[in-house]
Structure formats: C-alpha cells, structure tokens
Amino acid sequence: MKTTSLKIFYIFFILLFLYIPIITLIIYSFNDATYSTVWSGFTLKWYRHLAENDQLINAALNSLIVAILSSTIAVFLGTITSVALYRYSFYWKKFLYYLIFIVLMSPDIVMGISWLMLFSFFNLDLGFLTLLLSHIAFSFPFVAIVIYSRLRGLDKYIVEAAYDLGAGDFIIFRYIIFPSILPAVITSWLLSFTLSMDDVLVSFFVAGPTFDILPLRIYSMVKLGVKPDINALSAIIFLFTIIIVVITQLISWDKKRG
Questions:
Q1: With a cut of 50, which residues of the chain have pLDDT below it?
Q2: Dihedral of the CA atoms 238, 239, 240, 242 (nearest 10)?
Q3: What is the 3-state secondary structure (H, E, C) of 29-79?
Q4: DSSP 3-state assignment of 90?
Q5: Beta bridge partners of 42
Q6: pLDDT tens by residue, 225-243
Q7: Domain boundaries defined on the chain
Q8: Distance CA 116, CA 105 (A)
Q9: How far apart, in Å, do the first and last CA atoms of the chain sit?
Q10: Assigned fold of 58-225
Q11: Maximum distance among all Cα pairs of the chain, rounded to whole angstroms
Q12: What is d(CA 11, CA 109) in angstroms, rounded to the nearest whole number?
C-alpha cells in the first residue's frame, strides 16, 4: 500500500513539475499588468489586444500552415519509407536506415546552416517554400523511426497468410498494415506538428525576412520583455493542443471499440 501511494505521489510530483509553468502562463494571461509578475486583477484585455495584433496573428497562421503541410507530407513520405524498410530487401537498406538516424541525431544548427547553403547554391529565395522543405526534412526521420518501430511489432504471419489467400500489396497495406500502424501515424503527425510549431534554429536560417512565423516573432518580442498578449496567445495554442490530443484519443478509442 505504501509503495502504491509513493508511486502515485511520484507521478503527481512529476506532472506538477511539468505543468506549473504552463498553468502560471495561463493565469498571468488574465493579469491586469503589463510587465509585472504581481497580480493586479483579472482582465480579458490582453486577449482583445491579441485579436487586434495583426502581425502576431499572421505569424501564428503562417506557422500553422507550415506545420500542417510539413507534418502531412512528412507522414506520407515516412510511412512509405517505413513500409519499404519493413517489407522489402534491397542492397542499400541498412545504409538508408543509418542515414535516417544520422539526420535524426544532427544538431538543429547544423541542419539550418546546411539547408541555407543548399538554397543559396540553387538561388532559391528564402520564404515559405524553403521553410516548408526544411521542416519536412527534420520531421521525416522522427516519422520514419516511430512508424518503423510499430511495424517491427507487426506479426509477419498475417501478411504471409494474406499473400496465400491471393491479396496484393495494395490490399495488404490497406486492410492489414495501415490499420495496424494508424496509432503510430497519428502520433508521428502530432510529433511533427509540435516540432514544426516549436522550431527556432532551423527556421531562423531558412525563413527569410519576408515570411514571419510565430516562434521567430515571439523570440524577437521576448528580447524587450514578455508581454501578456504573448501569454494569451500561448494559452490559446495550449488549448488548441489539448483539443487535438483529445480528438486523436477519441478516434483511437472508437477504433479500439470497433
């Protein structure tokens, strides 16, 4: 009984440690003070200021567009790559697998500088396209590893049985492989989305001066002090994240019931 209580206390302490900063941020988004950390009263004016801040809203929309597109494309490419590594044998298979890990372990600053040099070599103007390609590149290894790990746990005898019954590659992927890896696909998409929304280093090198995104905008604003409208925006993003997680969990729960 004591061991169980200790485990519960330990889990509660870890969760409290993780969420106290976020809870503090949300609370101070309603604080009626510009820079002070002293509570000065409840107000919603910072959310009204946020609604009137076109630059911050446009940066947030740009970040959402890039994050959704890069995550979707990275999941598509990562799924194809993972299935190819799992299903087929070819000469460069191990080399490709190690290359994915090398990119995964490369520091962000190295990735940012390398992409900047590549775009400069091809005379590409820095902006939406270069940022999208870079986010796809650093999200792809995470997707491939997550989905491939799930595929490694798949029973190969099921696939062989489907072959014996006359099923083709597309039918096997649609009715056997894809339903089995769907939780990993959703997880990798959420991971890619979070990485894209959170990235500063790579985006700093490849975004360019004309395409503004939220992490770089906040990074430049924080140098002058954290204003409550940034807290309000962060609270909205956190609520949006919770909604996405709840929806994905409901989808997974419905599929398990089915």
A1: none
A2: 90
A3: CCECCCCCCCCCCECCHHHHHHHHCHHHHHHHHHHHHHHHHHHHHHHHHHH
A4: coil
A5: 31
A6: 667 778 888 888 888 888 8
A7: 58-225
A8: 19
A9: 36
A10: MetI-like fold (1.10.3720)
A11: 72
A12: 34
Which tens digit of pLDDT belongs to each residue from 136-187? 998 999 999 989 888 888 777 777 777 777 777 778 788 888 888 888 888 8
Residue type, 146: V
Alpha-carbon span 61 to 72, nearest angstrom: 17
Integer Cα distance of 124 and 75 in angstroms: 25
Cβ neighbours, 10 Å, residue 115: 20
Tokens 């595929």 sit on residue: 151
Give the number of other Cβ atoms within 10 Å of residue 214's Cβ: 25
Predicted pLDDT at 105 = 84
Q: How many CA atoms lie within 13 A of 5 on its CB side?
A: 2
Q: What is the model's pTM?
A: 0.81
